[in-house]
Write a structure and sequence with these properties.
Layout: H1 4-24, H2 28-40, H3 42-51, H4 56-99, H5 106-109, H6 115-173, H7 175-190, H8 194-230, H9 235-245, H10 253-265, H11 269-296, H12 303-317, H13 321-346
Helix pairs in contact: 2-6, 2-8, 4-6, 8-9, 8-11, 8-13, 9-10, 10-11, 12-13
Subcellular location: Cell membrane
Membrane topology: Multi-pass membrane protein
Pfam family, one: AI-2E_transport
Amino acid sequence: MFNNDRLLVQILLLALLGACLWVMAPFWSALFWGAVLAFASWPLMRLLTRALKGRESLAAAILTLGWMVLVLAPLVWLGFNLADHVRDATAFVKDVQVDGLPDPPTWLAGVPLVGERLVGYWNTIDQQGAALLVSVRPYLGQVGNWLLARSAQIGGGILELTLSIVFVFFFYRDGPRVAAFVLSLLERLIGDRAQYYLDLVAGTVQRVVNGVIGTAAAQAVLALIGFLIAGVPGALVLGIGTFLLSLVPMGPPLIWIPATAWLAWRGDYGMAIFLGLWGTFIVSGVDNVLKPYLISRGGNLPLVIVLLGVFGGLLAFGFIGLFIGPTLLAVAYSLLLDWVADNRARQPVK
């Protein structure tokens, strides 16, 4: 016979849990990203706490301020200066449309065997580029309206990122207590293997964060160095754009290739060649070498999981889904692999 009082208490607890989830729903993505960011940088938090003689709140405040300077300040600066750079880009497009590309350099025709063909390609690109600009001119206004409509979504993504950095402070300060609570909850749900699964999830999150964000940061810094050496205006804006586009396959070339073309259009062929080589072998080379190494280090995580997570997370969660998507898929993949391996190990040998 059922205990009516106990059943009523369980129903009330479930209703309370549902109400809490409903209230917290707008903040799940920011909370998740704040937790991932705090976990990935936890060794730095531990080192700073030790240097400050155990003052966790002060260490958490310093690290949170550092994240604000590194992440939010460039985004705010980008927002204030984006209009000027868009105006410069529009002027550049108009100049190309009116004047076309400059005459091919004299040394281009002197290249052995292929010089005349390269000059022909140069003139063909000039003619086709002018025709293309004329054909797409009626659609430029529609593109501008589309970008204006998406600006609200971009603002929402920046707001979520701001909230996640605010939450990072509390994860830093209360990290050990949160970890102990999660461990006790897992022990209540799955028993003795709770610590094992917690370590598995922690290692997966660490690899994904280091692989995706670490590679994007490395590419952004290297691209910024190249833009500064080549004298490209708006180098910081282009560096931030490289960081964002580094999260998707073949994203950085969308930044450094137009910059290289701009240098060539101005007649600065030496720096154009330098930036093209720098982007091909240095900036894009990091993505081909560093990312697979960081993600697969200590595990057997296919890169396609990360790529699907990037695109799926972007569609599901917006801007912040670029970070949440790969982490979720990678954790789920690792847990499924472990569950299958454990099930096979328990089967009796025939």
